[in-house]
Amino acid sequence: MLDQHDESRWPERFPRERLDSIRRRTGAARFAAQMLLQPVSTEDARLDPDRIPLYGGELEVEHLSGDRMLLSIEGKRMVSASCWWDPAFGMPRHGDGSVIAAVFGDTDGGYWLHRIQWLEQQPGSSLDAASQLCAQAAGFVKALHLPSVRLETNGLGRFLPGLLRRALSAADCGAGVVEQTSRQSKTARILQAFDVVLAAGALQVHRSVDDTPFFAEMREWRADGRSRDDGLDAVSGCLLAEPVRFGLLPARPAMPDWRGGAGQHVAKTEFEV
């Protein structure tokens, strides 16, 4: 559908604005296959971190009257937040990663991946492994003023909700715990979360994430499931939990009503009351 000058070959049916809309809605990989007839191999990387802008601003908290607060990042007001924890008991640098992530949403439909952390149990600690991880997760949630944390309860996660609630209470944090069961495969969930968001340029990532394995997972990820994806899975859970917003829409002129009907009628009267 696009020629060598990146113009539509069928502008009457597919003007450039419609093609851009299709690309944002379907994602870059599917657009290339369907609209450009380019073969897309499942072995090719689908997630390009170079398309994600980085930011360095921290959460700015403004306390209003009563218990109300305003959260903003780099002057942009945040109106929602999602936190996802996919727990694992792997030792440091061994086994599955126990990853917790937080994504904020702004008024215009933008997503801000503000923090992601690999939780690790420390051998020799006086606390058991589950209590260690829950304490770290509670500290993560409290530091970011998150209203709740979604805990994936597949596998060992089903034993943790009570411990996590106790850890949040001990940290003097009133966040809730939402038990979440994933029924999709990791591959389907990651593609569903990232494909369209990246195509639309709607995701920004804090610079601190550059010090974690997250971007390496993006570069090395393959749809066949043979690459590490613990961080990608946690962030995809956050993105899928966030509502879709379109920002403020421009005002439109009123359309004339051609459907007929009684409508409203004001009668002139000369009654004296």
Task: Describe what this molecule looks like in 3D.
The chain has 273 residues and is an alpha/beta fold. The protein has two domains: 1-40, no CATH class; 48-241, Nucleotidyltransferase, domain 5, CATH 3.30.420.240. 28% of the residues lie in helices and 20% in strands. Strands 1, 2, 3, 4, 5, 6, 7, 8 and 9 form a nine-stranded mixed sheet that branches. Strand 3 and strand 4 (76-86) form a beta hairpin. Helix 1 packs across helix 2 (28-35), helix 1 (16-26) runs antiparallel to helix 5 and helix 3 (129-143) packs across helix 4.
Give a topology summary.
Layout (H helix, E strand, L loop, with lengths): L15 H11 L1 H8 L18 E2 L3 E5 L5 E5 L2 E11 L11 E9 L4 E9 L9 H15 L4 E5 L8 H10 L5 E5 L5 H14 L3 E4 L7 H7 L9 H12 L32
Parallel strand pairs: 1-9, 4-7, 6-9, 7-8
Antiparallel strand pairs: 2-3, 3-4, 4-5, 5-6
